[in-house]
Amino acid sequence: MISIYTDGACSGNPGIGGWGVVILIDNKNPIYLNGGQSETTNNRMELVAAIKAVTYFNEKKELTIFTDSKYLKDGIESWIQKWKNNGWKTANKKPVKNKDLWIELDNEIDKHNVTWNWVKGHANNEFNEKADFLARKYIEEVN
After folding, report:
1. Residues 6, 18: contact at Cβ < 8 Å?
2. Catalytic residue positions?
3. pLDDT truncated to tens, each residue of the chain (143 aa)?
4. Which of 28, 49, 106, 136 fits a disulfide with 19 by CB distance 3.0 to 4.6 angstroms?
């Protein structure tokens, strides 16, 4: 069983952003990933965290991803199909923000069997808190 916790953070929006990932394989020692960008948004970092988590695996896997971002979960589970059908336009006929990352994430998750779960942020979920810590760690190191 592979459980993944992802989070993104930003100091300013846009501003310096970080992403964090905690990967648990069969509940063994966690694998920690993190990074960031100097000029980005929180939503972009949420997407990058998910992309980095999924691309960690070279072979097809059953992945359960936990995120505290409704933007990420709703986007990948329900909005993306409508966006693709509408030529990457929103219901208001505006271009989809972060289209590049949505396309990348969509392509990467097609290589696996992914289940998405929303968790409440900052609610004492150990691994969600660790993903948040990893995302903020990048921002603190750059500042």
Report:
1. no
2. 7-8, 46, 68, 122, 132
3. 999 999 999 999 899 999 999 999 998 999 999 999 999 999 999 999 999 999 999 999 999 999 999 999 999 999 999 999 999 999 999 999 999 999 999 999 999 999 999 999 888 899 999 999 999 999 999 87
4. 49
